[in-house]
Write a structure and sequence with these properties.
Keywords: Heme, Iron, Metal-binding, Oxidoreductase, Signal. It comes from Acidiluteibacter ferrifornacis. Its main location: other. The protein is 47% helix and 3% strand. It is mostly helical. It has four domains: 1-160, no CATH class; 162-271; 291-429, Cytochrome Bc1 Complex, Chain D, domain 2, CATH 1.10.760; 437-590, Cytochrome c-like domain (Cytochrome Bc1 Complex, Chain D, domain 2, Orthogonal Bundle). It is globular.
Length: 595
């Protein structure tokens, strides 16, 4: 819950920012010297980071708490104004500035475990707006931020940017706003992400004005300006009441449309594709993602023939040691490629869905492999699964003349362990149709959602905070807009359903990989797509119904039911959702079932 006094301070700060921007605009002299868009972007980035540094200095120099808080907000806004530039050109530094207030663990291998204390704007926000202010910590955080901003400034050079870079930069921010910006992802205390997004839309309008001469027709540029202005205005709304569904449906989709038109009008050719396809029509479409981005690069191209071959391999039981087990044994297509069991036969965990499994950067509940091709090795070798070997797999496939013919057609050579695994992975990557009732509705293809379901989505994205871990459009832990990292979390899942005096499940999760103490009970965030078909829930199948799942989250996860864990990443505060609100969220989640 955001304190009303904090909202008042924030509103006052944003008013002053708007006033100062207006004064600057009124007094700005026209520069007669021709300046390239790249030079403008670089100059603007450096200028705003200078402003941020100034305001961070005044945080410590302020004589009253309210002035220190306002200075913090001004500093954050200054950086947010260049978020589109900074996040695209220097993503690692951007993520460092806005990292969450949780201990960061970097596990290179068992002998190289780094523990990094959280620093940055999110941490400073929580410290500066807490009931008891630790001024030593405030000084520590502001010093870190100032030093980091100076480092960024000293190493900034944007003269390499091409038009396609700018277009990627622009679309990245459109995606960021519609996936994490409207959810409050990086403003957990003040909840100012909507206001910040409003300001960023005005900044995008300014950036685009530096490319106005590149438009063949003024009509398209004018449409962009109108869209940015409208979106900026709509964003000035109450966080809990903001209609995120209509915003994405009416405005994010419109921005994708304008972006694609601009690519065509500017006659831009992209050298390659990022996670999002260069021709993606919207965020919720089967053509949105570049599947090759999530595959081993040696064979990133995915064809119908490869998918068909992979499906045949997926359903073949001859690869297991006794010929009784195939991939489809635990991943049955009729129940979203799960098995309906709390714990899969002879296993220790629940069987995850294969739907949308290819669109992530970590695999297994403990995130121990980084690709589907790597995951398949584990399944083949596991004594309680296929209990076979890679050599035996290859020999079995080579012993089938039909398989050899297919591999010659698809790969141009006889089957190898790499091509076999790639084919299976290609089939799994194809299981991402984006054709649910929700997808068809929010993309504007067909209005199919009820008011209850729409409200459920808005709650999911806002008050209930679900989308701060289950990011749209995948609704898993793969973070947009780069989709380069799949997050793991500590929720405090009990051994069985309970609402009090619960006992933590004995599965240590990620800890088992490197024995990192601070990673006990951490698990990867799975997708909630097709959740109506994938009961029971959690890594151990502890919850039989979605009502139980919602109750667990509403109470604050493990902390709310008596499980006290130092590193729980789920906020321990109760959400205080009403029964009707929980029902609406469940109604929304059920719309994510593929047709």
């Amino acid at each position: 819950m955001i304190h009303s006094d904090y909202k008042t301070i924030a509103r006052r700060a944003y008013f002053l920012i708007s006033l100062s921007l207006l004064l600057i605009a009124c007094n700005k002299k026209e520069d007669t010297k021709a300046v390239t868009p790249n030079e403008r972007l670089e100059q603007y980035l450096i200028t705003q980071l200078d402003s941020a540094n100034y305001f961070l200095k005044t945080v410590n120099d302020s004589v009253t708490l309210s002035k220190a808080q306002m200075s913090f907000i001004n500093a954050r806004i200054a950086v947010k104004k260049v978020e589109p530039i900074l996040s695209f050109t220097d993503n690692q530094h951007y993520k460092t500035l806005f990292q969450p207030h949780i201990l960061k663990i970097v596990e290179e291998d068992a002998t190289n475990i780094k523990r990094i204390s959280p620093m940055g704007f999110q941490v400073l926000e929580e410290v500066l707006f807490s009931d008891s202010i630790d001024w030593i910590e405030v000084s520590k955080q502001t010093r870190f931020l100032k030093n980091r901003l100076r480092l960024i400034q000293a190493n900034t050079s944007l003269d390499y940017l091409k038009k396609y870079h700018f277009l990627w930069l622009l679309r990245d921010e459109i995606i960021r706003i519609s996936t994490t910006g409207i959810s409050g992802f990086d403003s957990p205390v003040l909840g100012q992400s909507l206001v910040e997004s409003s300001i960023i839309y005005q900044e995008l309008k300014t950036y685009l004005s530096w490319y106005e001469s590149d438009f063949n027709k003024n009509e398209l540029y004018t449409k962009w300006v109108a869209e940015f202005d409208t979106s900026s205005k709509i964003m000035k709304a109450d966080f809990d009441l903001f209609d995120r569904y209509r915003f994405i449906q009416k405005h994010t989709n419109r921005q994708f449309e304008l972006w694609n038109q601009t690519v065509k009008e500017w006659d831009v050719e992209f050298p390659f594709e990022l996670a999002i396809s260069n021709s993606a029509p919207s965020l919720f479409d089967s053509a949105t993602f570049n599947l090759g981005y999530f595959s081993d690069k040696i064979w990133s191209e995915i064809s119908k023939e490869k998918i068909s071959l992979g499906k045949k391999l997926f359903n073949d039981s001859s690869f297991s040691i006794d010929g009784s087990l195939s991939c489809s044994s635990c991943h049955q297509s009729e129940i979203a490629f799960t098995d309906g069991l709390a714990i899969s036969k002879n296993q220790t965990r629940n069987s995850p869905t294969m739907k949308y499994a290819g669109l992530q950067k970590a695999f297994f509940y403990d995130a121990r492999t980084g690709s589907l091709e790597g995951q398949i090795v584990d399944v083949i070798l596991n004594e309680t699964e296929f209990h076979s070997s890679i050599d035996d797999l290859v020999q079995t496939v080579k012993g089938d003349s039909i398989y050899i013919s297919h591999f010659l057609t698809v790969y141009g050579s006889e089957p190898t362990d790499l091509s076999i695994r790639n084919a299976i992975a290609a089939y799994i990557r194809s299981l991402s149709p984006f054709n649910s009732k929700f997808d068809l509705s929010i993309s504007g293809k067909k209005e199919m959602l009820s008011a209850k379901e729409i409200n459920g989505f808005n709650l999911f994205m806002g008050k209930a905070q679900c989308a701060t871990c289950h990011f749209p459009p995948l609704f898993n832990g793969t973070v947009p807009p780069n989709f380069s990292e799949s997050e793991i979390e500590l929720l405090g899942v009990p051994e069985k359903y309970a609402t009090s005096n619960a006992i933590i499940d004995d599965d240590l999760g990620r800890y088992n990989i490197f024995k990192t103490e601070e990673r006990k009970h951490f698990f990867k965030t799975p997708t909630i797509r097709n959740i109506a078909l994938t009961a029971p829930y959690m890594h151990n199948g502890a919850f039989q119904t979605l009502v139980q799942v919602m109750e667990f989250y509403d109470l604050g996860g493990g902390d709310g039911i008596g499980i006290k864990l130092e590193h729980q990443t789920l906020p321990a505060d109760a959400l205080n959702l009403t029964e009707e609100e929980e029902e609406n969220i469940i109604a929304f989640m059920k719309t994510l079932t593929d047709q």
